[in-house]
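Standup notes
- DV: blocked on the single-chain target, sequence here:
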Amino acid sequence: MNYEFLKYYFKKELYVENPPLNMKNFIEFCDKRGIKLTQDKLEKFEKSGWFYPIFRVKDFKNKPRNIFISLDFQPEHHNDFNKLLNEGYIFLPQEKDFMEFSKFFDKKARKRKFESFYSTFQIYHVIELLKHDPKNKNNIFFDSYQIYIEKFINLLIATQIYSPYGKSNGIYFYPNYGNNYHGKIKKYNLNEALDVIGAKEDDLYKTYFEICNKLEYILGSRFAIQLWKNIAWDKKDDCKGPTRLGIEYLQWAEMLKECIQHHLGREIFDVDEIDMSSEDIKNNIPSKETGRSIRGCRNEDFTNEITGEYEFNNHQKRLFYLANYLNLNYHPKVVVFVEGKTEEIMLPMFLKFYAISCDNLGIEIINIGGVSNFYGKNIRIKDENTRKYMDNIVTSYKHLINYNLHKWQALPYFLGDDENKLTERVLEGRVFDLKELFEKFDGRNIKEIEKKHPESDKEKYEKMIKEWSHVWEYDFELDNYTHEELQKAINEVCETNFSLEEIKNIYKHPQNGEKKGLKILGDIVEANKIPINKKAFKNLVKYYKETQDESIFDKDIFKVLDKIIDMAIFNPLPINTKHSMSNVSELGVYLMNGKDIYKRDKYEL
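- DV (later): unblocked, structure below
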Protein backbone atom coordinates (compact mmCIF):
# COMPACT_ATOMS: atom_id res chain seq x y z
CA MET A 1 0.00 0.00 0.00
CA ASN A 2 1.35 3.44 -0.94
CA TYR A 3 0.35 6.81 0.49
CA GLU A 4 -2.12 7.63 -2.30
CA PHE A 5 -3.92 4.37 -1.70
CA LEU A 6 -3.89 4.98 2.06
CA LYS A 7 -5.59 8.36 1.52
CA TYR A 8 -8.12 6.72 -0.80
CA TYR A 9 -8.70 3.98 1.81
CA PHE A 10 -9.76 6.51 4.45
CA LYS A 11 -11.51 8.90 2.06
CA LYS A 12 -13.77 6.13 0.71
CA GLU A 13 -14.16 4.53 4.16
CA LEU A 14 -13.02 1.13 2.91
CA TYR A 15 -12.33 0.18 6.52
CA VAL A 16 -16.06 -0.09 7.33
CA GLU A 17 -16.92 -3.28 5.43
CA ASN A 18 -13.77 -5.16 6.46
CA PRO A 19 -12.16 -3.42 9.46
CA PRO A 20 -8.38 -3.78 9.89
CA LEU A 21 -7.04 -5.78 12.83
CA ASN A 22 -4.45 -4.72 15.35
CA MET A 23 -1.42 -6.97 15.74
CA LYS A 24 -2.86 -9.08 18.55
CA ASN A 25 -6.13 -9.68 16.70
CA PHE A 26 -4.35 -10.37 13.41
CA ILE A 27 -2.22 -13.07 15.05
CA GLU A 28 -5.38 -14.61 16.55
CA PHE A 29 -7.10 -14.34 13.15
CA CYS A 30 -4.28 -16.31 11.52
CA ASP A 31 -4.15 -18.86 14.33
CA LYS A 32 -7.87 -19.64 13.96
CA ARG A 33 -7.21 -20.42 10.31
CA GLY A 34 -4.37 -22.82 11.08
CA ILE A 35 -1.52 -20.36 10.46
CA LYS A 36 0.88 -20.12 13.37
CA LEU A 37 2.10 -16.54 13.48
CA THR A 38 3.92 -14.74 16.30
CA GLN A 39 4.93 -11.18 17.03
CA ASP A 40 8.56 -12.20 16.58
CA LYS A 41 7.85 -13.51 13.08
CA LEU A 42 6.03 -10.31 12.14
CA GLU A 43 8.98 -8.30 13.42
CA LYS A 44 11.40 -10.47 11.44
CA PHE A 45 9.38 -10.07 8.22
CA GLU A 46 9.16 -6.30 8.67
CA LYS A 47 12.86 -5.98 9.45
CA SER A 48 13.62 -7.94 6.26
CA GLY A 49 11.44 -5.53 4.29
CA TRP A 50 9.06 -8.22 3.09
CA PHE A 51 5.91 -7.57 5.07
CA TYR A 52 4.31 -4.53 6.69
CA PRO A 53 0.97 -3.64 8.27
CA ILE A 54 -1.27 -1.60 5.98
CA PHE A 55 -0.76 1.36 8.34
CA ARG A 56 0.53 2.25 11.78
CA VAL A 57 -0.89 4.79 14.25
CA LYS A 58 1.23 6.95 16.53
CA ASP A 59 -0.01 7.96 19.97
CA PHE A 60 -1.87 11.26 20.05
CA LYS A 61 -0.46 14.24 22.00
CA ASN A 62 -2.39 15.07 25.13
CA LYS A 63 -4.82 12.21 24.52
CA PRO A 64 -5.82 9.33 26.83
CA ARG A 65 -3.50 6.36 26.60
CA ASN A 66 -6.34 4.06 25.57
CA ILE A 67 -7.11 6.01 22.42
CA PHE A 68 -6.39 2.98 20.24
CA ILE A 69 -8.89 0.85 22.13
CA SER A 70 -11.66 3.44 21.97
CA LEU A 71 -11.37 4.01 18.22
CA ASP A 72 -13.46 1.76 16.02
CA PHE A 73 -13.68 1.75 12.26
CA GLN A 74 -17.13 3.24 11.69
CA PRO A 75 -18.33 5.99 9.30
CA GLU A 76 -18.70 8.54 12.12
CA HIS A 77 -14.90 8.60 12.52
CA HIS A 78 -14.32 9.66 8.91
CA ASN A 79 -13.11 13.18 9.72
CA ASP A 80 -11.00 11.98 12.65
CA PHE A 81 -9.12 9.48 10.50
CA ASN A 82 -8.46 12.00 7.74
CA LYS A 83 -7.16 14.51 10.27
CA LEU A 84 -4.86 11.92 11.86
CA LEU A 85 -3.59 10.95 8.41
CA ASN A 86 -2.91 14.56 7.40
CA GLU A 87 -1.11 15.28 10.69
CA GLY A 88 1.08 12.19 10.34
CA TYR A 89 -0.36 10.16 13.20
CA ILE A 90 -1.44 7.51 10.69
CA PHE A 91 1.47 6.54 8.47
CA LEU A 92 3.02 3.80 6.34
CA PRO A 93 5.72 1.92 8.33
CA GLN A 94 7.74 1.13 5.19
CA GLU A 95 8.32 4.87 4.76
CA LYS A 96 9.92 5.11 8.21
CA ASP A 97 13.07 3.60 9.66
CA PHE A 98 12.58 0.17 11.17
CA MET A 99 11.66 0.25 14.84
CA GLU A 100 11.86 -2.71 17.18
CA PHE A 101 8.42 -3.80 18.30
CA SER A 102 9.47 -3.63 21.95
CA LYS A 103 9.55 0.17 21.62
CA PHE A 104 5.87 0.33 20.64
CA PHE A 105 4.91 0.31 24.32
CA ASP A 106 6.20 2.70 26.99
CA LYS A 107 6.44 0.53 30.10
CA LYS A 108 7.22 3.43 32.42
CA ALA A 109 4.25 5.49 31.32
CA ARG A 110 2.21 2.32 30.81
CA LYS A 111 1.19 3.76 27.50
CA ARG A 112 1.09 2.41 23.93
CA LYS A 113 3.08 4.62 21.61
CA PHE A 114 2.36 2.83 18.32
CA GLU A 115 -0.35 0.45 17.10
CA SER A 116 -0.06 -1.61 13.89
CA PHE A 117 -3.10 -2.52 11.80
CA TYR A 118 -3.26 -5.37 9.29
CA SER A 119 -5.77 -6.36 6.64
CA THR A 120 -7.34 -9.81 6.87
CA PHE A 121 -6.26 -10.36 3.25
CA GLN A 122 -2.61 -10.22 4.34
CA ILE A 123 -2.91 -13.77 5.68
CA TYR A 124 -2.35 -14.80 2.05
CA HIS A 125 1.05 -13.07 2.10
CA VAL A 126 1.92 -14.50 5.52
CA ILE A 127 1.29 -18.05 4.29
CA GLU A 128 3.69 -17.58 1.38
CA LEU A 129 6.37 -16.06 3.61
CA LEU A 130 6.10 -18.90 6.11
CA LYS A 131 6.56 -21.37 3.25
CA HIS A 132 9.62 -19.61 1.84
CA ASP A 133 12.15 -17.89 4.09
CA PRO A 134 13.20 -14.70 2.24
CA LYS A 135 16.82 -15.20 3.27
CA ASN A 136 17.00 -18.42 1.28
CA LYS A 137 15.79 -16.85 -1.96
CA ASN A 138 17.57 -14.60 -4.41
CA ASN A 139 16.44 -10.97 -4.49
CA ILE A 140 15.31 -11.06 -8.13
CA PHE A 141 12.74 -13.77 -7.41
CA PHE A 142 11.43 -12.13 -4.28
CA ASP A 143 11.39 -8.64 -5.75
CA SER A 144 9.16 -9.79 -8.61
CA TYR A 145 6.99 -11.81 -6.25
CA GLN A 146 6.71 -8.83 -3.89
CA ILE A 147 5.27 -6.73 -6.71
CA TYR A 148 2.73 -9.45 -7.53
CA ILE A 149 1.63 -10.11 -3.95
CA GLU A 150 1.32 -6.40 -3.14
CA LYS A 151 -0.95 -5.86 -6.14
CA PHE A 152 -2.93 -8.97 -5.17
CA ILE A 153 -3.54 -7.71 -1.60
CA ASN A 154 -4.18 -4.11 -2.71
CA LEU A 155 -6.80 -5.24 -5.19
CA LEU A 156 -8.66 -7.16 -2.50
CA ILE A 157 -8.55 -4.17 -0.15
CA ALA A 158 -9.69 -1.83 -2.94
CA THR A 159 -12.75 -3.99 -3.64
CA GLN A 160 -13.57 -4.97 -0.05
CA ILE A 161 -16.63 -2.73 -0.16
CA TYR A 162 -18.27 -5.91 -1.53
CA SER A 163 -17.11 -8.08 1.39
CA PRO A 164 -20.64 -8.31 2.92
CA TYR A 165 -21.57 -10.45 -0.09
CA GLY A 166 -18.76 -12.81 0.80
CA LYS A 167 -20.04 -13.24 4.34
CA SER A 168 -23.42 -14.48 3.24
CA ASN A 169 -25.32 -17.64 2.46
CA GLY A 170 -27.87 -15.90 0.29
CA ILE A 171 -28.71 -13.53 3.16
CA TYR A 172 -26.46 -10.49 3.10
CA PHE A 173 -25.12 -8.97 6.31
CA TYR A 174 -24.65 -5.30 5.61
CA PRO A 175 -22.54 -2.93 7.73
CA ASN A 176 -24.05 -1.02 10.62
CA TYR A 177 -25.02 1.99 8.53
CA GLY A 178 -27.85 0.01 6.89
CA ASN A 179 -29.47 1.51 3.79
CA ASN A 180 -26.53 3.86 3.19
CA TYR A 181 -24.53 0.81 2.13
CA HIS A 182 -26.47 0.53 -1.14
CA GLY A 183 -25.83 4.21 -1.81
CA LYS A 184 -22.15 3.68 -1.19
CA ILE A 185 -22.07 0.72 -3.59
CA LYS A 186 -23.84 2.80 -6.22
CA LYS A 187 -21.21 5.53 -5.96
CA TYR A 188 -18.28 3.11 -5.95
CA ASN A 189 -16.05 3.51 -9.01
CA LEU A 190 -14.04 0.38 -9.75
CA ASN A 191 -11.93 2.02 -12.45
CA GLU A 192 -10.93 4.76 -10.01
CA ALA A 193 -9.96 2.17 -7.40
CA LEU A 194 -7.86 0.25 -9.94
CA ASP A 195 -6.09 3.45 -11.04
CA VAL A 196 -5.17 4.30 -7.44
CA ILE A 197 -3.44 0.94 -6.89
CA GLY A 198 -1.92 0.85 -10.38
CA ALA A 199 -3.87 -2.22 -11.50
CA LYS A 200 -5.76 -3.06 -14.67
CA GLU A 201 -9.17 -4.59 -15.14
CA ASP A 202 -7.53 -7.85 -16.24
CA ASP A 203 -5.86 -8.06 -12.82
CA LEU A 204 -9.33 -8.31 -11.29
CA TYR A 205 -10.15 -11.44 -13.32
CA LYS A 206 -6.71 -12.93 -12.66
CA THR A 207 -7.17 -12.47 -8.90
CA TYR A 208 -10.63 -14.06 -9.04
CA PHE A 209 -9.13 -16.92 -11.07
CA GLU A 210 -6.26 -17.36 -8.58
CA ILE A 211 -8.50 -17.53 -5.51
CA CYS A 212 -11.14 -19.80 -7.07
CA ASN A 213 -8.49 -22.31 -8.08
CA LYS A 214 -7.44 -22.69 -4.44
CA LEU A 215 -10.95 -23.45 -3.18
CA GLU A 216 -11.29 -27.04 -4.37
CA TYR A 217 -7.83 -27.89 -3.02
CA ILE A 218 -8.77 -26.66 0.48
CA LEU A 219 -12.52 -27.29 0.77
CA GLY A 220 -12.83 -30.40 -1.38
CA SER A 221 -15.10 -31.02 -4.37
CA ARG A 222 -17.18 -28.33 -6.04
CA PHE A 223 -20.21 -29.88 -4.34
CA ALA A 224 -18.53 -29.16 -1.01
CA ILE A 225 -17.86 -25.60 -2.15
CA GLN A 226 -21.55 -25.13 -2.98
CA LEU A 227 -22.48 -26.59 0.39
CA TRP A 228 -20.17 -24.19 2.24
CA LYS A 229 -21.60 -21.29 0.25
CA ASN A 230 -25.03 -21.98 1.67
CA ILE A 231 -24.17 -22.64 5.30
CA ALA A 232 -25.09 -19.82 7.69
CA TRP A 233 -22.24 -17.39 8.30
CA ASP A 234 -22.28 -17.80 12.08
CA LYS A 235 -21.77 -21.55 11.60
CA LYS A 236 -18.94 -21.06 9.12
CA ASP A 237 -17.26 -18.52 11.35
CA ASP A 238 -17.09 -21.11 14.14
CA CYS A 239 -14.85 -23.37 12.04
CA LYS A 240 -11.12 -23.57 12.66
CA GLY A 241 -7.95 -24.59 10.86
CA PRO A 242 -7.63 -25.24 7.12
CA THR A 243 -11.41 -25.43 6.68
CA ARG A 244 -11.78 -21.92 8.10
CA LEU A 245 -8.99 -20.75 5.80
CA GLY A 246 -10.86 -22.24 2.85
CA ILE A 247 -14.00 -20.40 3.95
CA GLU A 248 -11.93 -17.20 4.08
CA TYR A 249 -10.83 -17.71 0.48
CA LEU A 250 -14.43 -18.52 -0.46
CA GLN A 251 -15.47 -15.22 1.09
CA TRP A 252 -12.89 -13.37 -1.02
CA ALA A 253 -14.02 -15.15 -4.17
CA GLU A 254 -17.69 -14.31 -3.52
CA MET A 255 -16.68 -10.70 -2.85
CA LEU A 256 -14.81 -10.43 -6.16
CA LYS A 257 -17.59 -12.22 -8.02
CA GLU A 258 -20.13 -9.64 -6.87
CA CYS A 259 -17.73 -6.81 -7.73
CA ILE A 260 -17.16 -8.15 -11.25
CA GLN A 261 -20.86 -8.80 -11.83
CA HIS A 262 -21.67 -5.27 -10.71
CA HIS A 263 -18.99 -3.92 -13.04
CA LEU A 264 -20.04 -5.98 -16.08
CA GLY A 265 -23.76 -5.76 -15.38
CA ARG A 266 -24.28 -9.49 -15.85
CA GLU A 267 -23.70 -12.90 -14.33
CA ILE A 268 -20.20 -14.40 -14.39
CA PHE A 269 -19.00 -17.95 -13.76
CA ASP A 270 -19.50 -19.18 -10.21
CA VAL A 271 -16.58 -19.75 -7.85
CA ASP A 272 -16.47 -23.50 -8.59
CA GLU A 273 -16.89 -23.13 -12.37
CA ILE A 274 -13.45 -21.69 -13.16
CA ASP A 275 -12.13 -24.38 -15.50
CA MET A 276 -11.09 -21.74 -18.03
CA SER A 277 -8.62 -18.89 -18.45
CA SER A 278 -9.03 -15.55 -16.69
CA GLU A 279 -9.81 -13.95 -20.09
CA ASP A 280 -12.76 -16.31 -20.53
CA ILE A 281 -14.17 -15.19 -17.18
CA LYS A 282 -14.55 -11.73 -18.67
CA ASN A 283 -15.51 -12.59 -22.24
CA ASN A 284 -17.69 -15.71 -22.02
CA ILE A 285 -21.40 -15.63 -21.15
CA PRO A 286 -22.15 -18.43 -18.63
CA SER A 287 -25.74 -18.97 -19.81
CA LYS A 288 -24.48 -19.68 -23.34
CA GLU A 289 -21.79 -22.13 -22.25
CA THR A 290 -22.08 -25.62 -23.78
CA GLY A 291 -19.93 -28.73 -23.97
CA ARG A 292 -18.18 -30.52 -21.13
CA SER A 293 -17.16 -27.53 -19.06
CA ILE A 294 -18.62 -27.38 -15.55
CA ARG A 295 -21.02 -24.60 -16.53
CA GLY A 296 -21.84 -26.29 -19.84
CA CYS A 297 -22.91 -29.44 -17.98
CA ARG A 298 -24.90 -27.38 -15.48
CA ASN A 299 -26.71 -25.54 -18.24
CA GLU A 300 -27.79 -28.89 -19.62
CA ASP A 301 -28.60 -30.55 -16.30
CA PHE A 302 -30.28 -27.66 -14.49
CA THR A 303 -32.39 -26.08 -17.23
CA ASN A 304 -36.10 -26.88 -17.13
CA GLU A 305 -37.04 -27.89 -20.68
CA ILE A 306 -40.63 -26.76 -20.18
CA THR A 307 -40.21 -23.37 -18.49
CA GLY A 308 -36.67 -22.60 -19.66
CA GLU A 309 -35.67 -21.70 -16.09
CA TYR A 310 -32.04 -22.28 -15.10
CA GLU A 311 -32.77 -23.79 -11.70
CA PHE A 312 -29.19 -23.69 -10.46
CA ASN A 313 -29.76 -19.98 -9.90
CA ASN A 314 -32.91 -20.75 -7.91
CA HIS A 315 -31.57 -20.71 -4.34
CA GLN A 316 -34.26 -23.04 -3.00
CA LYS A 317 -34.00 -25.59 -5.81
CA ARG A 318 -30.18 -25.52 -5.84
CA LEU A 319 -30.07 -26.37 -2.14
CA PHE A 320 -32.63 -29.13 -2.68
CA TYR A 321 -30.55 -30.75 -5.43
CA LEU A 322 -27.27 -30.25 -3.57
CA ALA A 323 -28.61 -31.79 -0.36
CA ASN A 324 -29.94 -34.76 -2.34
CA TYR A 325 -26.55 -35.30 -3.98
CA LEU A 326 -24.92 -35.33 -0.55
CA ASN A 327 -27.65 -37.61 0.88
CA LEU A 328 -28.61 -35.04 3.50
CA ASN A 329 -32.38 -35.64 3.04
CA TYR A 330 -33.09 -31.92 2.93
CA HIS A 331 -36.71 -32.80 2.16
CA PRO A 332 -38.40 -36.04 3.25
CA LYS A 333 -38.84 -38.80 0.70
CA VAL A 334 -41.93 -40.14 2.46
CA VAL A 335 -44.33 -38.24 4.72
CA VAL A 336 -46.24 -40.63 6.97
CA PHE A 337 -49.51 -39.15 8.22
CA VAL A 338 -50.76 -40.82 11.39
CA GLU A 339 -53.93 -40.19 13.35
CA GLY A 340 -52.62 -40.42 16.88
CA LYS A 341 -49.79 -40.04 19.35
CA THR A 342 -49.25 -43.79 19.59
CA GLU A 343 -48.13 -44.17 15.97
CA GLU A 344 -46.10 -40.96 16.14
CA ILE A 345 -44.07 -42.33 19.06
CA MET A 346 -43.94 -46.03 18.23
CA LEU A 347 -43.06 -45.92 14.51
CA PRO A 348 -39.56 -44.47 15.11
CA MET A 349 -38.98 -47.06 17.84
CA PHE A 350 -39.84 -49.93 15.50
CA LEU A 351 -37.66 -48.38 12.78
CA LYS A 352 -34.81 -48.20 15.27
CA PHE A 353 -35.30 -51.94 15.82
CA TYR A 354 -34.45 -52.19 12.10
CA ALA A 355 -31.39 -49.98 12.83
CA ILE A 356 -33.00 -47.24 10.73
CA SER A 357 -33.32 -43.57 11.58
CA CYS A 358 -36.24 -41.61 10.14
CA ASP A 359 -33.97 -38.66 9.36
CA ASN A 360 -31.29 -40.75 7.69
CA LEU A 361 -33.75 -42.51 5.41
CA GLY A 362 -35.83 -39.41 4.67
CA ILE A 363 -39.01 -40.39 6.52
CA GLU A 364 -41.10 -37.76 8.28
CA ILE A 365 -43.97 -38.69 10.60
CA ILE A 366 -46.77 -36.16 11.10
CA ASN A 367 -49.52 -36.62 13.65
CA ILE A 368 -52.63 -35.02 12.17
CA GLY A 369 -54.73 -35.71 15.26
CA GLY A 370 -57.66 -37.03 13.25
CA VAL A 371 -58.48 -37.48 9.58
CA SER A 372 -60.83 -34.49 9.59
CA ASN A 373 -57.81 -32.22 9.88
CA PHE A 374 -56.85 -33.17 6.33
CA TYR A 375 -59.83 -31.45 4.82
CA GLY A 376 -60.31 -28.86 7.55
CA LYS A 377 -63.50 -27.61 9.11
CA ASN A 378 -66.29 -25.22 8.26
CA ILE A 379 -66.27 -21.85 10.00
CA ARG A 380 -68.60 -18.87 9.69
CA ILE A 381 -67.06 -15.48 8.95
CA LYS A 382 -68.90 -12.18 8.93
CA ASP A 383 -68.38 -10.16 5.72
CA GLU A 384 -67.40 -6.58 6.61
CA ASN A 385 -69.21 -5.13 3.58
CA THR A 386 -72.46 -7.08 3.44
CA ARG A 387 -72.57 -7.80 7.20
CA LYS A 388 -73.64 -11.32 6.26
CA TYR A 389 -72.12 -14.54 7.51
CA MET A 390 -70.25 -16.68 5.00
CA ASP A 391 -69.19 -20.32 5.20
CA ASN A 392 -65.43 -20.85 4.82
CA ILE A 393 -63.23 -23.90 5.05
CA VAL A 394 -59.92 -23.82 6.89
CA THR A 395 -57.68 -26.63 5.67
CA SER A 396 -54.29 -27.72 6.99
CA TYR A 397 -52.92 -30.61 4.94
CA LYS A 398 -54.92 -31.22 1.78
CA HIS A 399 -53.05 -28.89 -0.57
CA LEU A 400 -49.76 -29.38 1.26
CA ILE A 401 -49.71 -33.05 0.22
CA ASN A 402 -50.18 -32.17 -3.45
CA TYR A 403 -47.55 -29.43 -3.26
CA ASN A 404 -44.92 -31.60 -1.58
CA LEU A 405 -45.53 -34.52 -3.90
CA HIS A 406 -45.39 -32.51 -7.08
CA LYS A 407 -42.59 -30.06 -6.23
CA TRP A 408 -40.40 -32.00 -3.81
CA GLN A 409 -41.33 -35.58 -4.75
CA ALA A 410 -42.36 -36.42 -1.17
CA LEU A 411 -44.67 -39.44 -1.25
CA PRO A 412 -47.56 -39.49 1.25
CA TYR A 413 -48.43 -42.55 3.32
CA PHE A 414 -51.58 -42.74 5.46
CA LEU A 415 -51.74 -44.82 8.61
CA GLY A 416 -54.65 -45.05 11.01
CA ASP A 417 -57.74 -46.96 12.01
CA ASP A 418 -60.95 -47.10 10.00
CA GLU A 419 -63.04 -45.40 12.65
CA ASN A 420 -62.96 -42.17 10.62
CA LYS A 421 -63.28 -44.00 7.29
CA LEU A 422 -59.79 -42.96 6.19
CA THR A 423 -59.83 -44.86 2.90
CA GLU A 424 -63.21 -43.49 1.91
CA ARG A 425 -62.11 -39.96 2.71
CA VAL A 426 -59.01 -40.36 0.54
CA LEU A 427 -60.98 -41.79 -2.37
CA GLU A 428 -63.45 -38.93 -2.11
CA GLY A 429 -60.55 -36.52 -2.61
CA ARG A 430 -61.07 -34.97 0.79
CA VAL A 431 -57.61 -35.88 2.08
CA PHE A 432 -55.76 -34.55 -0.96
CA ASP A 433 -56.91 -33.38 -4.37
CA LEU A 434 -56.56 -36.40 -6.64
CA LYS A 435 -57.91 -34.62 -9.69
CA GLU A 436 -55.47 -31.74 -9.34
CA LEU A 437 -52.61 -34.16 -8.73
CA PHE A 438 -53.33 -36.26 -11.81
CA GLU A 439 -53.81 -33.23 -14.02
CA LYS A 440 -50.49 -31.75 -12.94
CA PHE A 441 -48.50 -34.82 -13.88
CA ASP A 442 -50.52 -35.45 -17.02
CA GLY A 443 -50.24 -31.86 -18.17
CA ARG A 444 -46.50 -31.50 -17.66
CA ASN A 445 -44.60 -34.55 -18.78
CA ILE A 446 -46.91 -37.37 -19.73
CA LYS A 447 -48.52 -36.33 -23.00
CA GLU A 448 -49.27 -39.73 -24.39
CA ILE A 449 -49.04 -42.82 -22.23
CA GLU A 450 -49.98 -46.18 -23.64
CA LYS A 451 -52.51 -47.69 -21.29
CA LYS A 452 -52.30 -51.43 -21.62
CA HIS A 453 -54.98 -51.93 -19.01
CA PRO A 454 -57.41 -49.01 -19.16
CA GLU A 455 -59.26 -48.54 -15.93
CA SER A 456 -61.67 -46.02 -14.51
CA ASP A 457 -60.31 -43.21 -12.41
CA LYS A 458 -61.83 -44.78 -9.33
CA GLU A 459 -59.99 -48.06 -9.92
CA LYS A 460 -56.69 -46.20 -10.42
CA TYR A 461 -57.27 -44.21 -7.27
CA GLU A 462 -58.01 -47.37 -5.32
CA LYS A 463 -54.77 -48.97 -6.52
CA MET A 464 -52.78 -45.91 -5.51
CA ILE A 465 -54.44 -45.59 -2.11
CA LYS A 466 -53.90 -49.28 -1.41
CA GLU A 467 -50.17 -48.79 -1.96
CA TRP A 468 -50.02 -45.56 0.04
CA SER A 469 -52.05 -46.43 3.13
CA HIS A 470 -52.75 -48.97 5.83
CA VAL A 471 -55.82 -49.18 8.04
CA TRP A 472 -55.67 -50.99 11.37
CA GLU A 473 -58.43 -53.50 11.94
CA TYR A 474 -58.69 -52.34 15.56
CA ASP A 475 -55.91 -49.94 16.56
CA PHE A 476 -52.12 -49.93 16.86
CA GLU A 477 -51.65 -52.08 19.96
CA LEU A 478 -54.48 -54.50 19.29
CA ASP A 479 -53.28 -55.16 15.75
CA ASN A 480 -49.60 -55.62 16.59
CA TYR A 481 -49.37 -57.50 19.88
CA THR A 482 -50.70 -60.92 20.81
CA HIS A 483 -53.16 -61.31 23.67
CA GLU A 484 -50.36 -62.61 25.87
CA GLU A 485 -47.97 -59.77 24.95
CA LEU A 486 -50.62 -57.17 25.65
CA GLN A 487 -51.65 -58.79 28.94
CA LYS A 488 -48.06 -58.84 30.20
CA ALA A 489 -47.38 -55.22 29.25
CA ILE A 490 -50.62 -53.91 30.81
CA ASN A 491 -50.13 -55.73 34.08
CA GLU A 492 -46.47 -54.69 34.33
CA VAL A 493 -47.14 -51.01 33.65
CA CYS A 494 -50.43 -50.59 35.54
CA GLU A 495 -49.63 -53.11 38.31
CA THR A 496 -52.94 -54.84 37.61
CA ASN A 497 -53.90 -58.48 37.27
CA PHE A 498 -56.04 -58.69 34.14
CA SER A 499 -56.76 -62.20 32.94
CA LEU A 500 -56.14 -63.36 29.40
CA GLU A 501 -59.89 -63.63 28.89
CA GLU A 502 -60.34 -59.97 29.83
CA ILE A 503 -57.73 -59.00 27.26
CA LYS A 504 -59.42 -61.10 24.57
CA ASN A 505 -62.70 -59.41 25.39
CA ILE A 506 -61.27 -56.09 24.16
CA TYR A 507 -61.37 -57.42 20.61
CA LYS A 508 -65.09 -58.13 20.76
CA HIS A 509 -67.11 -55.42 19.05
CA PRO A 510 -70.23 -54.05 20.69
CA GLN A 511 -73.38 -54.51 18.68
CA ASN A 512 -73.27 -50.98 17.31
CA GLY A 513 -69.78 -51.59 15.89
CA GLU A 514 -68.05 -48.99 18.04
CA LYS A 515 -64.46 -49.83 18.97
CA LYS A 516 -63.57 -49.41 22.62
CA GLY A 517 -59.88 -50.39 22.64
CA LEU A 518 -57.88 -50.35 25.88
CA LYS A 519 -60.21 -47.87 27.56
CA ILE A 520 -62.66 -50.73 28.16
CA LEU A 521 -60.22 -51.90 30.88
CA GLY A 522 -60.59 -48.66 32.81
CA ASP A 523 -59.11 -45.19 33.14
CA ILE A 524 -55.73 -46.31 34.49
CA VAL A 525 -55.10 -48.43 31.40
CA GLU A 526 -56.33 -45.71 29.05
CA ALA A 527 -54.09 -43.14 30.75
CA ASN A 528 -51.03 -45.40 30.31
CA LYS A 529 -51.58 -46.30 26.67
CA ILE A 530 -48.18 -44.99 25.51
CA PRO A 531 -46.19 -46.62 28.37
CA ILE A 532 -48.03 -49.90 27.70
CA ASN A 533 -47.01 -49.76 24.03
CA LYS A 534 -43.42 -49.00 24.94
CA LYS A 535 -43.34 -51.86 27.44
CA ALA A 536 -44.85 -54.30 24.95
CA PHE A 537 -42.24 -53.23 22.38
CA LYS A 538 -39.42 -53.62 24.90
CA ASN A 539 -40.64 -57.11 25.78
CA LEU A 540 -40.86 -57.97 22.08
CA VAL A 541 -37.27 -56.88 21.44
CA LYS A 542 -36.07 -58.87 24.45
CA TYR A 543 -37.98 -61.94 23.24
CA TYR A 544 -36.44 -61.71 19.77
CA LYS A 545 -32.90 -61.35 21.12
CA GLU A 546 -33.38 -64.44 23.25
CA THR A 547 -35.17 -66.65 20.70
CA GLN A 548 -34.41 -65.22 17.22
CA ASP A 549 -38.05 -66.07 16.44
CA GLU A 550 -38.62 -64.68 12.93
CA SER A 551 -42.39 -65.03 13.25
CA ILE A 552 -42.58 -61.65 15.00
CA PHE A 553 -42.03 -60.04 11.60
CA ASP A 554 -45.44 -61.31 10.52
CA LYS A 555 -46.97 -58.51 12.58
CA ASP A 556 -48.74 -55.79 10.58
CA ILE A 557 -46.42 -53.08 11.85
CA PHE A 558 -43.43 -54.70 10.16
CA LYS A 559 -45.34 -55.06 6.89
CA VAL A 560 -46.21 -51.37 7.09
CA LEU A 561 -42.61 -50.43 7.80
CA ASP A 562 -41.38 -52.57 4.90
CA LYS A 563 -43.67 -50.60 2.57
CA ILE A 564 -42.58 -47.24 3.94
CA ILE A 565 -38.89 -48.19 3.78
CA ASP A 566 -39.31 -49.40 0.19
CA MET A 567 -41.01 -46.14 -0.74
CA ALA A 568 -38.08 -44.19 0.68
CA ILE A 569 -35.38 -46.39 -0.86
CA PHE A 570 -36.98 -46.56 -4.31
CA ASN A 571 -37.79 -42.86 -4.36
CA PRO A 572 -34.42 -41.30 -5.25
CA LEU A 573 -34.64 -37.55 -4.81
CA PRO A 574 -33.25 -35.66 -7.83
CA ILE A 575 -29.77 -34.16 -7.92
CA ASN A 576 -30.52 -31.80 -10.81
CA THR A 577 -33.40 -30.56 -12.97
CA LYS A 578 -33.01 -33.24 -15.63
CA HIS A 579 -33.16 -35.94 -12.94
CA SER A 580 -36.18 -34.24 -11.38
CA MET A 581 -38.11 -34.17 -14.65
CA SER A 582 -37.28 -37.82 -15.27
CA ASN A 583 -38.54 -38.71 -11.80
CA VAL A 584 -41.73 -36.72 -12.33
CA SER A 585 -42.31 -38.54 -15.59
CA GLU A 586 -41.82 -41.95 -13.97
CA LEU A 587 -44.02 -41.01 -11.04
CA GLY A 588 -46.63 -39.86 -13.52
CA VAL A 589 -46.57 -43.28 -15.17
CA TYR A 590 -47.29 -44.83 -11.81
CA LEU A 591 -50.12 -42.45 -11.04
CA MET A 592 -51.75 -42.80 -14.44
CA ASN A 593 -51.39 -46.55 -14.76
CA GLY A 594 -51.22 -47.90 -11.23
CA LYS A 595 -47.67 -49.23 -11.64
CA ASP A 596 -45.72 -50.44 -8.64
CA ILE A 597 -43.99 -47.41 -7.13
CA TYR A 598 -41.34 -49.62 -5.57
CA LYS A 599 -40.17 -50.95 -8.92
CA ARG A 600 -40.85 -48.05 -11.23
CA ASP A 601 -37.31 -48.04 -12.65
CA LYS A 602 -38.17 -51.12 -14.71
CA TYR A 603 -40.85 -49.27 -16.69
CA GLU A 604 -39.56 -47.62 -19.82
CA LEU A 605 -41.07 -44.32 -20.91
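- Follow-up: Confidence is low (pLDDT under 50) at residues 64-70, 443-454, 600-605.
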